């Protein structure tokens, strides 16, 4: 399998060429030249496989530049019970007889679904950098989930260092403890005296210094990375097998969405032939995507229009993976995709599909819905009272929207994107009690912390990176 860009550059690229890159040179996102199709016989065979073997089968359809034995070993090392808590890796449980099911994607080291992809990325990076004899210094800014997932994936990995900026004192004590308690030499936490945007601005300033970026081999692990998306395709198959008996049965998925990475992986699974009836996009008060699926208008929000909510990992103003789906929706017309994302969004901050283009959305199975803080609290409470199941705020957005869309005879799988332990404040508000915490994390706030506080000054961050990469200034 080779890869092309959503904005018209069809120069074929291999998986490992795009693994360590961000955007394509023309500003688009990478996608495979075509989605490999799986037939009923293949599904029947895959149904029998343990998670890591299933992951290998799917990944090997998309990766032709890692020898089979190496890829198999790498995947087997990634998806283990030791890392993800259960032999099923992504166990599905039913919510009574409502037709709703919850697929647990959050039993990895940082208690959020980003571990599912990031753990694989850590092993892929180590493998590819080792093979090239290169090093990579990952620079990022985080307000929570992404940064911690990246650090837990890259800790102790050869050839990789992480420099993660966060707003000093503004993460929850649990999230801070998770990141700052890491003692690995290749992980560097920088607590910036400012807000998240200050941290983000420093990352941009450092990345815009091209000479520094090259000398110090600066890279990122953002959500547009194709390898992350590919890793997520696997659990759509694994979830499907757990709630169906026949390989023609249909299911729907409901996905708490922000940057559209997670549900885009569902779109890839459906495009491969997995019998998915609907892909239901659930948003919080930041409803860019719900608006699009209702109206065909995509309108990027301004910073001041982006709400801070109790499902913070879905607080986005534009959905960075969305262009991938629109490219497919437009019949893979790179020129039209470039016109919408490269021109209209840049110029007007919005675009509108033609009626004919909008009409195609139904063929792709997409639906959407929205949830608010009040919905979230009510859903956490009712799920606890009726099903003795405690869900986090993001998953609650999914359950709320899924309940509006579930159809008789079609199981609806809600993807659980985080555990309630990460969002204690809203759990207390909804249930008047503390969230359950997985074994081993009880005293995490008391562990010794390793981090450096810095003023919001790009020059000081650069000096810190230079000092710790041993590459001079
Ligand atoms: C990142 C994240 C999301 C949003 O996922 P996208 O792939 O950006 O749509 C939802 N919930 C949680 C808990 C997350 O960490």
Question: In terms of topology, how is this protein built?
Answer:
Elements: E1 3-5, H1 15-19, E2 30-32, H2 40-46, H3 51-62, H4 68-78, H5 81-84, E3 92-94, E4 100-104, H6 114-132, E5 136-141, H7 145-154, E6 160-167, H8 173-180, E7 187-192, H9 196-208, H10 210-215, E8 218-219, H11 226-243, E9 251-256, H12 261-271, E10 276-283, H13 288-295, E11 297-299, H14 322-329, H15 334-348, E12 350-352, H16 355-359, E13 366-370, H17 373-387, H18 393-405, E14 412-416, H19 424-431, E15 452-454, H20 458-469
Parallel strand pairs: 4-14, 5-6, 5-8, 6-7, 7-15, 9-10, 9-14, 10-13
Antiparallel strand pairs: 1-2, 3-4, 11-12
Helix pairs in contact: 3-4, 3-11, 4-6, 6-7, 6-11, 9-20, 11-12, 17-18, 17-19
Residues 112, 114, 145, 223, 256-262, 313-314, 394, 417-418 line the site of pyridoxal-5'-phosphate.
């Amino acid at each position: 399998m080779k890869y092309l860009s959503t904005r018209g550059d069809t120069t074929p690229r291999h998986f490992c060429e795009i693994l360590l890159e961000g955007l394509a040179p023309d500003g688009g996102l990478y996608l495979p030249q075509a989605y490999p199709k799986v037939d009923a016989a293949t599904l029947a065979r895959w149904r029998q496989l343990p998670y890591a073997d299933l992951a290998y089968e799917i990944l090997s359809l998309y990766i032709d530049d890692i020898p089979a034995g190496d890829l198999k070993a790498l995947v087997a090392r990634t998806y283990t019970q030791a890392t993800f808590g259960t032999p099923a890796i992504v166990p599905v449980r039913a919510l009574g007889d409502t037709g709703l099911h919850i697929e647990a994607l959050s039993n990895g080291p940082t208690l959020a679904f980003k571990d599912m992809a990031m753990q694989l990325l850590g092993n892929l990076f180590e493998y590819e950098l080792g093979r090239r004899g290169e090093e990579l210094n990952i620079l990022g800014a985080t307000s929570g989930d992404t940064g911690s997932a990246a650090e837990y994936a890259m800790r102790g990995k050869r050839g990789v260092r992480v420099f993660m900026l966060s707003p000093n004192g503004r993460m929850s004590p649990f999230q801070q403890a998770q990141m700052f308690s890491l003692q690995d030499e290749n992980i560097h936490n920088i607590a910036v005296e400012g807000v998240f945007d200050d941290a983000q601005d420093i990352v941009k300033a450092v990345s815009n210094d091209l000479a520094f970026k090259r000398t110090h081999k600066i890279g990122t692990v953002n959500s547009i990375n194709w390898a992350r998306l590919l890793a997520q395709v696997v659990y759509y198959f694994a979830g499907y097998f757990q709630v169906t008996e026949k390989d023609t049965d249909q299911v729907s998925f409901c996905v708490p969405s922000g940057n559209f990475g997670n549900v885009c992986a569902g779109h890839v699974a459906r495009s491969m032939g997995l019998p998915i009836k609907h892909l239901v996009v659930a948003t919080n008060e930041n409803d860019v995507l719900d608006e699009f699926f209702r109206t065909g208008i995509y309108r990027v929000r301004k910073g001041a229009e982006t709400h801070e909510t109790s499902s913070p990992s879905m607080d986005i103003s534009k959905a960075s993976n969305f262009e991938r789906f629109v490219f497919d929706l437009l019949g893979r017309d790179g020129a039209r995709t470039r016109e919408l994302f490269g021109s209209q969004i840049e110029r007007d901050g919005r675009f509108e599909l033609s009626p004919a283009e909008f009409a195609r959305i139904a063929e792709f199975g997409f639906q959407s819905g929205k949830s608010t803080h009040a919905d979230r609290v009510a859903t956490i409470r009712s799920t606890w009272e009726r099903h003795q199941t405690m869900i986090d705020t993001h998953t609650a957005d999914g359950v709320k929207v899924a309940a509006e869309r579930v159809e008789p005879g079609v199981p609806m799988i809600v993807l659980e994107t985080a555990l309630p332990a990460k969002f204690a404040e809203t759990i207390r508000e909804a249930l008047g009690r503390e969230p359950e915490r997985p074994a081993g994390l009880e005293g995490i706030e008391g562990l010794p912390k390793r981090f450096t506080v810095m003023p919001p000054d790009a020059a000081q961050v650069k000096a810190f990176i230079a000092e710790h990469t041993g590459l001079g200034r």
